[in-house]
Amino acid sequence: MSRPLKTVIVNGSLHRPSRTQVLLDALRDTLNDQLALDVQNIELVSLLPELGAALSTDALPAHAHQAIKAIEQADFLIVGSPIFRAGIPGLLKHLFDLVDMNALNGTPVLLAATGGSQRHALVIEHQLRPLFSFFQALTLPIGVYATPEDIQDGEVTNAALQQHIQRTVDLAVPVLHSIQTRLPLQNSVLEAQAA
User: Fold this and answer.
1) What is the CB-side half-sphere exposure of residue 1 using CA atoms within 13 A?
2) What DSSP designation does 54 have?
3) Which of 10, 162, 163, 179 is deepest in the core (most CB within 10 A)?
4) Mean pLDDT over each residue of the chain, to the nearest integer
5) Where are the domains of the chain?
6) Of 91, 33, 97, nearest in space to 68 by CA
7) Is 117 helix (H, G, I), strand (E, B) or coil?
8) What are the phi and psi torsion angles at 192 (to 5°)?
9) Pfam families, from UniProt (predicted)?
10) How far is 72 from 87, CA to CA, in rounded Å?
């Protein structure tokens, strides 16, 4: 038996509520059906305005510094971004500029994005995947992209997108399960220390 994956979900949206959060919630729920996850949500909007003014982690308030530490210590990241004018928000990139460059080495990352049309779907491949390649993270093979037509009333309503989410999770689970089985059991470590 292994411990739940310490999963950090990063929502790069500057709005609340957001379609990006709906997509991230759908991914989380589908993953939760197959894996034990210990989830922490980080919303970019909750780190404003201090994040934008910080040139180093030393300049961050405690809650923003804790968000960076959570990202650095995660077993698994799910990162979602809205796409504006064919790009991710600069503040999302800035958040990861403050992450230690060695902290995500080998960490699996599931990428997701939302945009106004299918024209921006490749931003996952052209901006998000290279960002995490810099960190030598293990980006999972399929990203998930959604448009306003796919999400209605706070839910993923498009059947094709729901199937794509399921297929993405089905491909991710063997990788995540392999990592999960190698994680030390927190209780076993505590019991060994107490003995």
Assistant:
1) 4
2) -
3) 10
4) 93
5) 5-189
6) 97
7) coil
8) -65, -35
9) FMN_red
10) 24
Task: Tell me the mean pLDDT in the region 39-59.
Answer: 93
Placement of tokens 């919303």 in the chain: 43
CATH architecture of 5-189: 3-Layer(aba) Sandwich (3.40)
- pLDDT, tens digit, 9 for 90 and up, residues 162-192: 999 999 999 999 999 999 888 776 544 544 5
Q: Which residues of 93-117 are buried (b: 16+ CB within 10 A; e: fewer)?
A: eebbebbeeeebeebbbbbbbbbee
Please, how many CA atoms are within 13 Å of residue 33, restricted to the half-sphere of its CB?
10
Residue 145 three-state SS:
strand
Angle, helices 159-182/19-32, rounded to nearest 10 degrees: 50
- Which pair of structure tokens corresponds to residue 53? 């003014």
